[in-house]
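Re: [ENG-882] Designed sequences occasionally contain unexpected residues at chain ends

Forwarding the minimal case from QA. Structure tokens:
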């Protein structure tokens, strides 16, 4: 066991303490000179030992510092490496966890995108089916209306025939003698060739008149035939549908139907309405009549419920229109509203064709376009339907 310098110094001091009394006790019988020499010897030994102890302490301190430095460096390297390894493992685990969460997020986004695409497709199919069903109902209603009008005309014809027969019978009764009717009624079983012959002549004349009326008023039916020029223009447009009015198909419709239908006394407003219809930014809403006038700060109402903003005439306006994001409302009469609506219906249908929402044959689409053109033609000529 190697003693440190501090421990060696402490032991030496203790030894000197124990040796001093011995020397002192032995010096009682000695002379003073001997005692003085002994004390000097002890001092020299102590000084020598102190010098040796200082050298050993310095060397021991250097050895201890070197050993502590070596031990700290020996302990520091594994500890730092272990901390680094633990930190790396922890970061690696967090990275794996983040990657798993990111993968789950990607899967969720992909699933939601598929659901969105499926809903969009279903919505397009539903819109197309509803549009086809609506046009089918409109066509059936038009067919029923045409049939009802035809029956009404036939009924009026039959009424006219019956009225003619009644008038002939009245004439026959009035031209006969006053006593002959009663006499003929009493003696109707006896042959009376003259009067009977005259009666038969009048009856045959009435029948011939009714036959002539039937011949003059034949039963008419609705017929239609495809115009090859118009059909060719429509087929060419259908191959590359567009809203550009420079194509032959739309240019003809603009000149023959749209411009005449939207021609009003207020030219500037009519042009603005056509631009809104082309841009699909026009909105029409019914007018809610209130007992007291309400002034809106955010909207300016042009005209009024009793004056049409397009024609300038005093009419009861049940609807008002708004152009795009404008804050102005324009009151329109039922006649002007029907003309605008007929043009809007035409643009709505061709937009559906352009977007591929109409699942019909080309000929059916052509006849639907012709029907919408017919509505615009009737509207520009003054025929319209008013909502009650």
């Amino acid at each position: 066991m190697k003693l440190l310098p501090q421990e060696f110094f402490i032991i030496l001091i203790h030894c000197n303490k124990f040796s001093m009394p011995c020397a002192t006790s032995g010096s009682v019988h000695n002379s003073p000179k001997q005692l003085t020499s002994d004390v000097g010897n002890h001092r020299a030994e102590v000084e020598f030992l102190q010098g040796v102890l200082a050298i050993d302490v310095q060397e021991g301190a250097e050895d201890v510092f070197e050993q502590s430095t070596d031990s700290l460096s020996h302990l520091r390297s594994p500890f730092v490496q272990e901390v680094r390894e633990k930190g790396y493992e922890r970061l690696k685990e967090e990275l794996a966890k983040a990657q798993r969460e990111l993968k789950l997020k990607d899967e969720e986004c992909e699933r939601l995108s598929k659901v969105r695409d499926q809903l969009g497709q279903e919505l397009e199919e539903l819109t197309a089916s509803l549009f086809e069903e609506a046009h089918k109902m409109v066509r059936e209603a038009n067919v029923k209306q045409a049939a009802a009008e035809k029956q009404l005309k036939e009924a009026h014809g039959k009424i006219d025939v019956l009225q003619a027969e009644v008038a002939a019978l009245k004439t026959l009764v009035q031209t006969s003698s006053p006593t002959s009717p009663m006499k003929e009624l009493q003696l109707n079983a006896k042959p009376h060739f003259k009067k009977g012959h005259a009666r038969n002549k009048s009856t045959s004349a009435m029948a011939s008149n009714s036959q002539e009326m039937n011949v003059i008023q034949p039963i008419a039916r609705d017929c239609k035939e495809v115009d090859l020029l118009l059909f060719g223009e429509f087929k060419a447009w259908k191959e590359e549908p567009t809203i550009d009015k420079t194509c032959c198909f739309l240019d003809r419709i603009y000149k023959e139907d749209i411009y005449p239908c939207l021609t009003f006394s207020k030219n500037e407003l009519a042009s603005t309405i056509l631009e809104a219809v082309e841009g699909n930014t026009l909105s029409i809403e019914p007018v809610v009549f209130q007992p007291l006038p309400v002034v809106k700060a955010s909207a300016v109402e042009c005209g009024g419920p009793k004056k049409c903003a397009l024609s300038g005439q005093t009419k009861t306006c049940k609807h008002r229109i708004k152009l795009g994001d404008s804050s102005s409302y324009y009151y329109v009469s039922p006649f002007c509203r029907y003309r605008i609506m007929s043009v809007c219906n035409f643009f709505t249908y061709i937009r559906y064709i352009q977007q591929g929402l109409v699942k019909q044959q080309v000929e059916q689409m052509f006849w639907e376009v012709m029907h919408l053109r017919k509505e615009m033609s009737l509207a520009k000529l003054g025929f319209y339907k008013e909502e009650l």
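QA comment: On inspection the terminal residues look reasonable. The two ends are 123 Å apart (CA to CA). Proposing we downgrade this to a documentation issue.
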